[in-house]
Amino acid sequence: MTYTEASMDALRQSGDELADATVAALFERGEVGTFNTLMRYVSTAGAPLPEGLPDVAREYLEATRVPPAWVDWGVMEQARLFFIDNNVHISTALSFASMPACYLVPHVAKLLSTTHGLKYPSKRMAETGQFTVQLMQPDAFEAGSRFIPAAQKVRLLHASIRHHLVREDRWDTGALGTPICQEDMIGGQMFFSMLVLDSLHRLGIHMSTEGAEAYSYAWRVVGAMLGVDQDAVPTSLDASRRFLDLYMLRHMGPSEEGAHLTRQLIDLYEEVVPGTFFDPIVSALIRHLVGDTGADWLRVPRTPWDTVVKAVPHLLGVLETIEDRSPMGAWALDRLGHLTTVLELSSLTRGRVMHYAIPEQLRKDYGVSDTLPRNRRWTPPPTTVG
Questions:
Q1: Which residues constitute the domain of residue 280?
Q2: Which residue did the predictor score with more confidence, 26 or 329?
């Protein structure tokens, strides 16, 4: 698909027809409370749906209980192995690049401020981290997994936000289009896939073209399960680059909400980092990954660590070389990455499974070795804008 201003404008007018109709019916019939109560018992794929579940919800859950028929499971396995090999780096990219990038889009920052609350960035980080880890489990799409029910609930959560913002006249659809529109959903998919790969490249991580393509493909599967229009979504890394460049050129800029959310995110991670000596590395890493212009828009403070953090790719390069040449070294680093990711996630979730529910109103405060060749270096597609 060729992406133009006109085609992107058209994507701003569309939401998710199936999820939107389901949520509208639940609110119209006064069944949201019943749905949320019963859905707390539906946390694993294949579990029987509880008695008393509203019919419209049951029909939605039946229609979305399996992944798209076009999924290539060989590529999904490659994506899982890529995640295992790079989990700590991917977590770093999600935390210090993908999340701040969301805040660089003023209308997205405004929406997040309205729906997720300025005081609780840990909730969104925990949900994102847990969702990604669930996706990359070997049984993610099998009976007993937590990923599919999470995807079904997130899709309805997005629809409920659209419902509230429009019904309560809290969103300028004339100027901003549909809240959580197709353009923004695809943009979010790019933040969690293409931008993560860009960040890994910036960090000097060794990864093959096959691994990068597989990781991007896995997020295309996720997008399909979250209601993204598959006729509009990029299907290659080159197309992803074109979409992401145009999306950011159209929308990124400074905003009070974006700066405030970023400050809350920095505070959150400074709390996670032991002591205070290393606190400035949080800001320095965000600045390194999103660039000076974006960091200035988000009011990320400059620190003496801005220069030091540029040495990170060299250090990671040494570790990656050890991993490439030594099976034992690869195993040890994979285990360390796994433990680091689990520790980070547990600190955000406080050991709890995150539950997704349809809000009845919006509040202002609301061990496997990689068989892919890793000694060949993937290079991101070149930027498509001057």
A1: 85-138+177-349
A2: 26
